[in-house]
Amino acid sequence: MESGAEPQKDYYKVLEVDFDATDETIRLSYRRLALRWHPDKHKGNSDVTAKFQEINEAYQVLSDPDKRLEYDLSGSYEIDRYTLREYLSRFKGMILTCNGLGINHPSWSQQLTETEPIDQ
């Protein structure tokens, strides 16, 4: 990373959801946080306005399937930024399934469960 470059924001942390959160979970968390951090409730506080803008930015990306996929695939992830629990929660989809990497091949699971006798 270049010096002075801002690290990529973790939009999942911003919206307080897991990496594999459903669209509905993301929407509900966004609404809850937007109500809590709305600038009208905290008049004159620039930190609250910045937090509200960050929440909106995260929602704009994670609520759009194409932007979310691009974000997930292009993110720069540093292992030391996460506790083990956060790391496993965030990356379990990629760790446990090919679909977590965007690979969807239904016959693979069928092939793994079917075994053919070996001719000797």
Automatic annotation (TrEMBL):
Q: Sorted alphabetically, which Pfam families does this protein's record hold?
A: DnaJ
Domain J, first and last residues per copy: 10-75
Q: Which PROSITE patterns match?
A: DNAJ_1, DNAJ_2
- Specify the superkingdom: Eukaryota
CDD domains per UniProt: DnaJ
* GO CC terms: endoplasmic reticulum; nucleus
Which regions span the lipid bilayer? none
Record's PANTHER family?
CHAPERONE DNAJ-DOMAIN SUPERFAMILY PROTEIN (PTHR45504), OS02G0693200 PROTEIN (PTHR45504:SF2)
- The name of this protein is J domain-containing protein
Origin species, per record, is: Ensete ventricosum
The beginning of the lineage is: Eukaryota, Viridiplantae, Streptophyta, Embryophyta, Tracheophyta
